[in-house]
Amino acid sequence: MTRVQANLLLLLSGAIWGAGFIAQSTAMETLGPIWFIGLRFAIATLVALPVALWENARAKTPLRRADAAGFVLVGLALFAAAASQQVGLLTTSVTNSGFLTGLYVVFTPILTVLFLRRRPHWIIWPAAFLATVGIYLLSGGALAALTLGDTLTIVCAVFWSVQMILVGVFAVRSGRPAALSAVQFFVCAVLGCALGALAEPISLAAIEGALMEILYAGFFSSGIAFICQNIAQRYTTAPQAAIFLSSEALFAALFGVLLLGETIPPAGYAGCAVIFVAMLAVELVPELLRGRRAVPAEA
């Protein structure tokens, strides 16, 4: 897979997550946030398991214990991100949540430098800034006073960054993106159902009321989108992946217009354009600079 194909796969994940944001918001009208996480990732585990078994049958070497432990760490980071975002939506607006979650485009390159000692391409820094500005404009260009939900969503953005960095490490090192997906989904499903059983009431009527949201989030937002992310990150960097996944905010606004009849203000269209420019910059600038260096060498 080429880097361009990998980035297009990440763009697909962003589109699926953008539509899934609506499902996440409406599901909590009848179901608790932790139960929603547990049930959606239980479905995602069933989606990923056949792919993981097929991948394992084709593998030439057994999965190392260190990589399996790394998969569990990815699952813990994913659960922390999903839980803090879902609980945060109870006490913050969708506008604030969309913007603050998108801060992972800034946190990811910073954490990559701090923990992996890897310098991303210089274009990542201005592109991350542009993507953040674009998400801000797309969210309406204004933030209310920070609530507990806002704080939880900022924590969520940090954990999303950790999850992306860990995926970049273990998906590449193990060569098992489907196994990584299945394990991280299973960890989230177990933790979500266990904590939900302890902390939240549950009933068959509540599950039936949120069934369509659970199925969409489980099959598409969790199963398909995260598998695409894990596969794509074998061929690109975590900071670059964060830029393309930030398109989630763009697609969330688009699906809000198409499915919920919402409107995008002029600042929102400007935000869409800025996010698009950030993604183009990440994709094209390294290629253009590489081409310029190659010409003198050939001459």
From TrEMBL:
InterPro entries attached here? Answer: Diverse_Substrate_Transporter (IPR051258), EamA_dom (IPR000620), EmrE-like (IPR037185)
Protein topology in the membrane: Multi-pass membrane protein
Q: Transmembrane region positions? A: 33-54, 66-85, 97-116, 123-146, 152-172, 179-198, 210-229, 241-261, 267-285
Q: What keywords tag this UniProt record?
A: Cell membrane, Membrane, Transmembrane, Transmembrane helix
Keyword DNA-binding tagged: no
Its name, as the record gives it, is: DMT family transporter
Q: Name one Pfam family in it.
A: EamA
Outline the extent of the EamA domain. Answer: 7-139, 148-281
**Presence of the UniProt keyword S-adenosyl-L-methionine in the record:** no
Q: Which organism is it from?
A: Shinella pollutisoli
Q: What is the lineage of its organism?
A: Bacteria, Pseudomonadati, Pseudomonadota, Alphaproteobacteria, Hyphomicrobiales
Q: Where is the signal peptide?
A: none
Q: Where in the cell is it found?
A: Cell membrane
